[in-house]
Amino acid sequence: MISSKKIKALVLLLLLSGFAFSQEPDSPEEKSTKSDAVTEKNLTDEKDPEEEKDDPAAEVIESEETVKVARPVTSDPVQVYGWIEKVQISGMNETLVAKLDTGAQTSSIHAENQQLFERDGKKWVKFVVTDTREDGAKRYEMEAPLSRIVSIKEPGGEPDERNVVRLSFKIGERNIKSEFTLKNRGNMLCPVLIGRTTIKTLGWIDPSRTYLADDKIVR
């Protein structure tokens, strides 16, 4: 018969054997799985070094840039003109029909019999202006200081040198002084062309309407 001491010793031995079994080292596969899990957790928790934190200053700058883009050119009322208007050149009693053309930079006026001469040591131009749309229209002899000479090349043509003068004219109730190239515009739609340089001081152009200057349409 087994004594109680032997029984206790046997139970203790079994308990020790079970504890050792539970502490058995992980197999290579288990170690690999645990390592992958730890690595995945670390990658998930780790922040991208390229990632930038929200910068209040950057937000302010972006907001200001947005406002700049959205801000209108001017808050002042702007008059609207048609693409065809009547203008009165200083020194003429009649009005001439003018085309307001954003495709041209400098304004132009029909001029005949151009002659350069000197006055007080400065170059002047003498020329004749008339309404090319009317037969027998009155002819006006004009003189103006020569501002400069420009070379303009027409599509498919040779460069053409043109005299440039500053002339005062009235459109609606606006009195403006601007540069005009002198050219024979007998084959053109209008004897006067108003280019971008002058248009930007006038206002907006409605390309679908004509003769709006006297209507004083403001936007």
| Secondary structure: helix percent | 25-40%
Relative strand content: 35-45%
Instruction: Give me the CATH superfamily of the largest domain.
Output: Acid Proteases
Which word captures the global form? elongated
The rounded distance between the terminal residues' Cα atoms is: 118 Å
- Largest sheet features: 6 strands, mixed, barrel
- Enumerate the spans where pLDDT stays under 50 for 5 or more consecutive residues: 19-25, 28-72
CATH-defined architecture of the largest domain: Beta Barrel
> How many domain regions?
2
What is the H/E order? HHHEEEEEEEEEEHE
Mean pLDDT: 79
**CATH class category name of the largest domain:** Mainly Beta
Alpha-beta content class: alpha+beta
Could you name the CATH topology of the largest domain?
Cathepsin D, subunit A, domain 1
Number of strands: 11
Query: What is the alpha-carbon Rg in Å?
Result: 44 Å
Strand order of the largest sheet: 2-3-10-4-9-8
What is the number of helical segments per DSSP (H or I, 4+ residues)? 4
